[in-house]
Amino acid sequence: MTAVPAANDFIRDIVRRDNDRGTYAGRVQTRFPPEPNGYLHIGHAKAIVVDFGIAEDFTGVCNLRLDDTNPDTEETEYVDSIVDDIEWLGYSPARVLHASDYFEQLYAWAEYLVTNGKAYVDDSDNETISAQRGGFGKPGIESEFRNRTPEESLDLLRRMRAGEFPDGSRVLRAKIDMQHENMQLRDPVMYRIRHADHHRTGDTWDIYPTYDWAHGQSDAIEGVTHSICTLEFDTHRALYDWYLEQLPLPGDQPKQIEFARLEFTHTVTSKRRLKKLVDEGVVDGWDDPRMPTLRALRRRGYPATAIRAFCRDIGTTRTNSRQSIEALESYVRRDLNATSQRRMAVLKPLKLVLTNWPEGQVEHFEVANNPENPDDGVRSVAFTGELWIERDDFAEVPPPKFFRLSPGREVRLRGAYLVTATDVVKDADGTVVEVHATYDPASRGGNAPDGRKVKSTMHWVSAPHAVTGTVALYDRLFSATVPGERTGEPLDDLNPDSREVLTDCRLEAALAETAPGQVVQFERLGYFAHDPREALLFHRTVGLRDEWAAIQKRQAH
Ligand code: ATP
Ligand code: MG
């Protein structure tokens, strides 16, 4: 596993240099600034680990700031989930702040810019404004309203605020340079008219600030020193700085630093695209275990510690790349291997009857809960002459290389006895419904006294002791490595078999005691998370096989 020392990334270098030079008097303040228009996803985890991690490393402060400047898409439901997900990941914001709390200050600063001739009200419609912006190598055209007097713009801005004009009829624009090679500086829009209720400010406002006009100013108001965001804001940095340089700031001027987004194969990390999956019923909701949201990963049993370790170890760079989802799963597996208790569960049950078992006898085996962790203790597992085994572990006519149970073959029932199949019972269709076998009483614990070898060890559950439960198996939600790469639409790459639900699973009795949300290892099958709400529903977190190790080995050759 590649472990880039967290202390060595380029952002920490910048912070260290600022500290050495006394730029912010040794202060380090970051923020995590999601727009509350959806649930946080695995990409956000990276930003959280960077923002909070840097504050931690430099004994600074990291706040959560809800970047709630768009009344059309934001909801309190999302705010609550964001706060909760950050806590689950293991971080505590110093404060929970809202960009909407600065609307009054932002507006005052807008009037300040208008008064100084640095902003103007434009009566052009959206189409005209974007057409006049030009493009790369294409000159911009100055709006006919660009040179109206500050007095006139101020009057119009106040009337925009007072709600006198309809949506979309006017905007406030910064007056920068319509020929600037960076399109962001071609007189960007600062305010739009929008007669909409905001989830916090209600109907107080009829104009709303754009992202660029709100973001840097919010940073400055809060005292942020290092404003860390993702690479797509690279071209916005000049505008971020321009606004701050025009204004009488209450303190130091914050600095924007960009890094590459975290993306994975076989999934999408964009709230807009995730929302579409929910809205179109492709998944059951934001916490459907196939989703890459933090909600869903948590329900599926991903430990927060594994997500944090992964985000740290991949390092922070300015090069966009896509991580293999198998690499993240490998972190999850390693974490769960150390922490999760072992249990036996039969997902597709087939009855195994031991014909020489003393009628009515019950034996109990003491089994270690987790061989990786003796502190987890032991439990008692009941064994009888009527058992459930996996249907896939039996073949009446074994194909080549099938070493599990078949007539005449001896196998080990894990930790219990060696058994040899003798014959089968079939239903009218010829399907095997019961296997008969004999056990060797001298093999108690699963070892033959004469040292004879058996090729297979199988899991089992005592039928009279079993509880019935439901197990959901998951595969990739998108079959393509890069969903949407072919057609631009990720939905075209959906894997139709991303979920298989087995409702007749036979579980060892101890599984009835599993706590909500607890993850256990089902012997031979993988790691499974107990649903937080529905008892005896288990979600497969990951299988046991480390596909990432195989991928790395292939790449090395
Ligand atoms: P989306 O496209 O999913 O809506 P966004 O960038 O609009 O994402 P915000 O909620 O506005 O998301 O972002 C909050 C913070 O999280 C921002 O600083 C953003 O740069 C960061 N972020 C969002 N997605 C990722 C990602 N995939 N990897 C790393 N950081 C991310
Ligand atoms: Mg966004």
Write a brief structural summary:
With 557 residues, the protein is of the alpha/beta class. The protein is built from 13 helices and 27 strands. It has three domains: 10-261, HUPs (Rossmann fold); 271-341 and 469-556, Ribosomal Protein L25, Chain P (Beta Barrel), CATH 2.40.240; 345-459, Beta Barrel (Ribosomal Protein L25, Chain P), CATH 2.40.240.10.
Determine and state the CATH class of the largest domain: Alpha Beta
Helix share bin: 25-40%
Helix segment count?
13
- Helix vs. strand class: alpha/beta
> Biggest sheet, open or closed, and with what strands and sense?
7 strands, mixed
What shape does the CA trace take? elongated
Strand content: 15-25%
List keywords for this structure.
557 residues; alpha/beta; Rossmann fold; Ribosomal Protein L25, Chain P; 3 domains; 13 helices; binds magnesium ion
Task: Describe this entry's structure for a reader.
It is built from 13 helices and 27 strands. The protein is α/β, with parallel strands linked by helices. It folds into three domains: 252 residues, HUPs (Rossmann fold), CATH 3.40.50; 159 residues, Ribosomal Protein L25, Chain P (Beta Barrel); 115 residues, Beta Barrel (Ribosomal Protein L25, Chain P), CATH 2.40.240. It is 26% helix and 23% strand. Strand 25 and strand 26 form a beta hairpin. The N terminus is likely disordered. The chain is elongated and about 100 Å long. Helix 2 crosses helix 11 and helix 7 crosses helix 8. Adenosine-5'-triphosphate binds next to helix 2, strand 8, strand 10 and helix 9.
